[in-house]
Amino acid sequence: MAAGGRSVPIRAVVFDVGGVLETTPTTGWQARWEARLGLESGEIDARLHDVYRAGSIGAVTLAEAEVQISARLGLDPEQLASVMDELWSEYLGTLNVPLHDWFRACRPRYKTGILSNSWVGAREREHARYAFGDLCDTVVYSHEEGIEKPDPRFYAIVCERLGVQPEEVVFLDDVRVNITAARALGMHGVLFTGDTPETLAELAALLERSTVHDV
What we know:
Elements: E1 12-15, E2 22-23, H1 29-37, H2 43-56, H3 62-73, H4 77-92, E3 94-95, H5 97-105, E4 111-116, H6 122-130, H7 132-135, E5 138-141, H8 142-145, H9 152-162, E6 169-173, H10 176-185, E7 188-191, H11 196-214
Parallel strand pairs: 1-4, 1-6, 4-5, 6-7
Antiparallel strand pairs: 2-3
Helix pairs in contact: 2-3
């Protein structure tokens, strides 16, 4: 809210990726490989937890992560390639086409950006499959910045690159703590619960109200 009670117009729309632009149900690859390797249920994630974490903030390269995955699971090169294929298949999921198309149509009236907690290698793979680099004005990944949601500094990066203030941003994410953090900064946070038509209606209403208040 601007001085004097006047609403600040929305100038930017920012979307999360996994669980929002990408539909990413679990595929069960860990359980399948635990059975093949004779491991206990949940052991793959337990062994790789710190590798996942390091990759999400860019503390390791993809090549380094693959070396650690291979060593910790006792994989030969062929098995490693198969594990990585399955890992990326689950990570990339499928495109939420209605959300994607709505988001794409926001330009050029609104500045648009992606803000994603990610993993090393995500930019190349997501662009190859979904052309996210062409979809919006900026794509901000945690593995490239070394910080992730809900750290306020991460949100500040996308605002700076779009040239807007938090109060001028609508942000869509599927994780409640990330929305809480966005709202604390002044963003218009919208929690995506999986109902795409309902979410699109809420987003459209926010933009419409902003337009009316800006007249």
